[in-house]
Every structure is written in structure tokens, then in C-alpha cells.
Amino acid sequence: MPAVTVENILTLPRVAEPVTTAVSRPVRSVTTAPQGFEGEGFPVRRAFAGVDLTALDPFIHMDQMGEVEYAPGEPKGTAWHPHRGFETVTYIIDGAFVHQDSHGGGGVITNGDTQWMTAGSGLLHIEVPPESLVQSGGLFHGLQLWVNLPRAQKMADPRYQDIRGGDVALLSSPDGGALVRVIAGELDGHQGPGITHTPITVLHLTVAPGARVRLPWNPGYNALVYALNGNGSVGPDRRPLRMGQLAVLGGGDVVEVGADESQESRSPSLDLYVLGGQPIREPVAAYGPFVMNTRAELVQAFEDFQAGRLGTVPSEPHPGHDVL
């Protein structure tokens, strides 16, 4: 799991140790993501399955894509599909994805890159592996997070942010036991590159075996900790957490995590996706690729899609993939 790293973590700015009076957030629940398939058949873990939307707000959905070692000819992606009313955040840890939309946006994201797409009023979108990966096979691993938009911004103009892995803010825990990548939002005064409509913080942590980390956290945000791989614990009572599990935390000032001393050979460290944001607290009407506030808005989204008002599929083939 390379993503983005450094040779000497001790050269990085350090996250300040929270004050002794800071309250460590307790664990409200730990759930295990069921496994399934998405798009043309690539394996995913449904990270938020079974968790109440009020605990996730402002987040809606998250899939861990892979980790999978493809044989030649096996890599898969998605067909063209619509979105409206929210943002998709695709983070590639290993491998590569090619993306394109009906507004002319697109590009390639690879190790440590993030493609942040604000669907807003609506567009058509496709994500596929590049032809080189289809031919050679190889490791593929990533995440796709859906971030809700408040009512006033659901019909905003679509936009892209291509966040290169080298642009994320890299930090060290106070003792050097963890590498912190700030993808979006702010941590201890350090700003990530992602520009967000809804105030959120998104981090990727790599915690060395036996290390513990206490991160200062905005008390007005919720807090979610998802284990990408490895074994560890979360919260002041050190609740066990392993690959494919999500911890929902309660209120407080500190997110506390730790890695077990012993890790599997294929996962030498504990990797965590830590996220939180300011709840929107508006009604959510979600179905398939649309996230709106009311059923009537959902019906309108489907009608607009069927009428071609969310865009049309470009006539030229998608880069790296033949579109029929």
C-alpha cells in the first residue's frame, strides 16, 4: 500500500499532542463491511452498510475497491452512469483508474491521487482501468466516498478537482509512529488540497506496529475510522478494529487509534481512512446515483436523465477503454 510516503518521517511537521483535558471520542459502534461487486464486476466492501445516515452525515456512501491482484484481462470498471446532488471522492492507493464525464472532464488517477467530482446539477460519468492495466493485470486498491451537498448547492455547476498524491499535506504523529496524509480539510492547522462545499476533514493514516496516535478533532464534526488493512484498536477503551471495519465515534476533541504489535506479513502497518464533517441535517432522499432532499426531486432527476438533460455519452471511445 504505497499511496504517498516519505523516506524519513521525522523530517515532517508534527501534529501537536492534544492537551491533557481533551476528551477522547468513545466508540459508538463497529461494523464489518459486507463484500460485493460494483460496475462491471470489480470487488468492493460496502463500508457504511448498516450504519444510520444520521451518524454518517454529511457522508452518504463509501466503497473500498479491492484490494485485488488482477490477472491479465481481468481489471474492470464501470459503464457510463449519471450522478446528481452530491460529490464523489475517488482515492487510488494502488493501480490506476481512467475517468471521463459528459462535460469534457477526465484524466488518470494513480498511486495516492484523488479525483474529486462535484456532480451538482448532474452529469454522466465513467471510470475504467487503463488498457495497460487490463493487458498486464496487477494490484488495484482504492476508495470511493460520497459526500452530500446541502440543499442550496445540490444544483451547482459540476466541477472536478484532480488532487495529485504529491499535493497532499504529509504530517507525522508526535513520536513519529504514524504518517498522516491530509487529503481535504484541516488537521491541527495543516490544510489539505481538497476544496469542499461541506466542511469536512479526510485523512489517510499509516500507523506503525505498536504505535498509538491521538489526533485533535473538531468537536463540531462527526468522526468515522475505517480500517483499510491491518489490525489495531480505536477509542479510549481500545476497541479492536481490523481490515474492512468501520468505527463510528461519539463526541469529543480527540480521535484515538493504535496499531497492534503484530501485523500480517501482507499488511505490515495499520492503514486507516479517518473522516469527519459538519452535519448538514437536512432530509435525504437517495436512490441509485442520485442524492436529493425529496422524492419529487428524485423523480425529476430520473426524468432529466432519461431526457438527456444530464448530458450525453461522447461519441469518441473513452481513453483506454472501448465504449460501445
From TrEMBL:
Pfam families: Pirin (PF02678), Pirin_C (PF05726). Residues 203-310 form the Pirin C-terminal domain. Its cofactor is Fe cation. One of its GO terms (molecular function) is metal ion binding. Residues 42-147 form the Pirin N-terminal domain. Keywords: Iron, Metal-binding. Fe cation binds at H81, H83, H125, E127. Transmembrane segments: none annotated. CDD domains: cupin_pirin_C, cupin_pirin_N. The keyword Cell membrane does not apply. The keyword Secreted does not apply. Binds 1 Fe cation per subunit. Belongs to the pirin family. This is Pirin. The lineage of its organism: Bacteria, Bacillati, Actinomycetota, Actinomycetes, Micrococcales.
